[in-house]
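User: Run a structure prediction on this.
Assistant: Running it now.
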Amino acid sequence: RWISDTLDKSNQAAKTRNEGMNSPQSGSSSSGSDNPYARKEVSYVCETGDDLAVVVGGIFRRIREAREKGENHGKSVEQQMANVGDGSHTPTTMRQTNVVVIPNCEDLSSSFRVFDELVQAINQARRRARDFVTKKDDSQDSSNDWVVSINCAHLHPQYGVQTPEERLAAMKHEEEEGEVDVNLQEYKQRRDEARRSPYPSVIVEVQSTPPPDFVSRSSARPEPPSPASRPPFFAEASDGEKDPSVTSDDVKRLEALFGMSAATKSSDDMFYDALGEAFGDNQISTTTPLERAQNWVLENDPAFDVNSSTFTNSDTRHVDAAYEFVFNNFAMLRSQKDTLPKRGQKSYIVLPNFLPTSATSFDRFAGQVSNIVRSIPGLAEKVTVSTFHPEHIEKRTRSPVPIFVATWK
């Protein structure tokens, strides 16, 4: 209701402005459609959690859903263009706004500073994620990437309210300047009042736009080669006959060679000796990444306690989903009143597909998790984070898969 009333006031102000611009004195032809608030698609959702770790996990879940919605929009538009085929379909831009209302978290409702620091930490983590070396899905085509941008803003009942220290600093600054800009002060006051909502809220806006070269790329897409233009299995001479250098005996020898069992190879078999030198002791493993991580931790982490340590795993490749999974794990452990995390207890979060080729990116991810944790009252002094990774410089922290470790204090 508050947002609806705010938009109604903006609509009325825009209508009055446009009527003035359309007057004979102005000579302008603006219309009511110029109102920027009237073109947004807004949806509302309530985050009912009362724990800050649950709220943070929920915010990242909304961000992940917004990203997936933008990516799916690009895929559906490309599918439509492929079905039409004549180039008449124009790619459209999607823009949606999702308002996440958080009414039940007392820590956020009672303090704008806590809420502001938390949202700023989340946005900083999202910005730093641009430098991560992520592993892309092999099925994705990099030439068809749509630009999916997500913005996060926040509203609060005490938005912009200054602390006594901030008011004193502002008064000293005005005294040093020697003059006060009344118009600037009024603008700041109206801006802050416009963002004072009844409950703490996070605004997640997603925009999905086609790549800059979308039209030229779609028109210049190469056609697949016809069967007639593909080279035959056997090279043919200019007179139409098969190359005499490749005989049926050669084919039979190759079939016999590849059909032999590795267990029956002799010591003078150069083919299998070369394979052994190339691959070494690498073998196909039937164990899962979680089992490999558990076995490695059991052998290499002296702080591991079989009675208190926990293991969870996720196959996500995306940063927002990884943040969501980590903070949902924190919330799950804190929600169990009978078995709260004990001092020294370790929680191992196995992420085999997340940043598997960059230990630096994985360490920075853990650093951003720690930065968000520091902005959560009651959690900052209870948990520390560390990592194990296959690409770590130190051998003692070089695990078979990426492992995020939370140690409870």
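Residues 24-39, 233-238, 261-265 have pLDDT under 50 and may be disordered.
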